[in-house]
Amino acid sequence: MKNVTDSVVYFGYWSSAGSFGFNTDILATNPINLSVVLGVLIFFGKGVLSDLLDNRKQKILNSIRNSEELREGAIEQLENVRARLRKVELEADQFRVTGYSEIEQEKLNLINSTYKTLEQLENYKNETIQFEQQRAINQVRQLVFQQALQGALGTLNSCLNNEIHLRTISANIGMFGAMKEITD
């Protein structure tokens, strides 16, 4: 009989450790549910996200290559312009007496237009890179937000039954009524 008493005392002492049941406290279970949902989203969404980022990276690299090709074309144009400049300078030496000021003005205009063209191409390249990066970031944010929202809605729909839903609505209506009384 002493063994039976010992086992009853033993089970009474550890009754909380041996019990099993559902925790209906929604505030205590939400962090667990959210962590599970986030874990599943990260686990399954990692491949989609990496594919999306790889595709975006390729587009950005292609844009950079195109910009570099444009830059190389601009450099070739600059070399052509410099060759023309040298030619103009030779002609300027020949016609220095008659039209020195006109030739000098043409030279400056040619240099300025070339530098403006180079600056515009460089700005275009930088804007393209920045735009593609921002677009990629926005698409990733939108995709992650959509997946998280769908997961959260699925979790909420699977966890909420009619009784809990009605109690939540009633509690919110009560809070709004109390807030209205306070503001009045």
UniProtKB/TrEMBL annotation:
Organism: Rosularia alpestris
TM region positions: 32-49
Role according to the record: Component of the F(0) channel, it forms part of the peripheral stalk, linking F(1) to F(0).
Stored InterPro entries: ATP_synth_b/b'su_bac/chlpt (IPR002146)
Main location: membrane
Coiled-coil positions: 64-98
Stored PANTHER family: ATP SYNTHASE SUBUNIT B, CHLOROPLASTIC
Keywords on record: ATP synthesis, CF(0), Chloroplast, Coiled coil, Hydrogen ion transport, Ion transport, Membrane, Plastid, Thylakoid, Transmembrane, Transmembrane helix, Transport
GO cellular component annotations of the record: chloroplast thylakoid membrane; proton-transporting ATP synthase complex
Membrane topology listed for this record: Single-pass membrane protein
Subunit structure: F-type ATPases have 2 components, F(1) - the catalytic core - and F(0) - the membrane proton channel. F(1) has five subunits: alpha(3), beta(3), gamma(1), delta(1), epsilon(1). F(0) has four main subunits: a(1), b(1), b'(1) and c(10-14). The alpha and beta chains form an alternating ring which encloses part of the gamma chain. F(1) is attached to F(0) by a central stalk formed by the gamma and epsilon chains, while a peripheral stalk is formed by the delta, b and b' chains.
Name this polypeptide is given: ATP synthase subunit b, chloroplastic
Entry's Gene Ontology molecular function annotations: proton-transporting ATP synthase activity, rotational mechanism
Subcellular location: Membrane; Plastid, Chloroplast thylakoid membrane
One Pfam family recorded for the sequence: ATP-synt_B
Other known facts: In plastids the F-type ATPase is also known as CF(1)CF(0).
Family: Belongs to the ATPase B chain family.
